[in-house]
Amino acid sequence: MAVLTVRRYGDPVLRRKAEPVSAITPQIKQLIDDLIDTMYDQVGIGIAAPQVGVSLRVIIVDDGEGGARPLVNPVITAQDGRAVAEEGCLSIPGIFAQVERAESIEVEALDGDGNPLHFQAQGLQARVIQHEMDHLDGLLFIDRLDKATRDRIKRKIKKDGLPDEAPHHAFAL
Ligand code: NI
Q1: Residue 78 backbone class (left: φ over 0; alpha: ψ -120 to 50; beta: rest)
Q2: Which of 125, 150, 130 is nearest to 9 (CA)?
Q3: Ligand 1 mean position, distance from CA 114 (Å)
Q4: How far is the CA of 23 from the centre of ligand 1 (A)?
Q5: Which of 34, 109, 158, 160 is deepest in the core (most CB within 10 A)?
Q6: Quick one: three-class SS letters along the chain?
Q7: Full-prediction pTM beyond 0.90?
Q8: Ligand 1 centre and the CA of 9: distance in Å?
Q9: Are strands 46-48 and 58-62 parallel, antiparallel or unpaired?
Q10: Tens digit of pLDDT for each residue in 40-80?
């Protein structure tokens, strides 16, 4: 178990399309444990493997009950509704914006032992899963904003940089 360094905006690994996991090996189980440690250390409610520099399709989602749910090779098989809410990202500390996403989703994935999962998620959990799955495709939440807002955020990051220590926030992914 180890807390890993979270890669920040500008790191090319955050823009890469992650590879599927072909088997749940001891290394993958170790990665899952480390991602969970890192997520809690950073007071996040979700994290994706590319955020620690590993370009594999593994995400962790806080289950809202104090537990952490690993999802391996997740796929959204259906979605419904639209919802807007504030998001932040462990890789872009100090930046928050309103993001529109599907309100409810249906997900297929493997759990941390390689067992198939098929479930529905809505509200905050659906949002976290969609945000983390974007990381697997090299997307960041600022890519989901209108161009004017995104450009304003990019200019701010260029001018001020990112804070070393982000203020803890209830919604960091
Ligand atoms: Ni994020």
Answers
A1: beta
A2: 150
A3: 24
A4: 25
A5: 109
A6: CCCCCCCCCCCHHHHCCCECCCCCCHHHHHHHHHHHHHHHHCCCCEEEHHHHCCCECEEEEECCCCCEEEEEEEEEEEEEEEEEEEECCCCCCCCCEEEEEEEEEEEEEECCCCCEEEEEEEHHHHHHHHHHHHHHCCCCHHHHCCHHHHHHHHHHHHHHCCCCCCCCCCCCC
A7: yes
A8: 10
A9: antiparallel
A10: 988 889 999 999 999 999 999 998 888 999 999 999 999 99
pLDDT at 114 over 70: yes
Give pLDDT, residue 17.
Answer: 98
Write down the catalytic residue from 100, 103, 106, 132.
Answer: 132
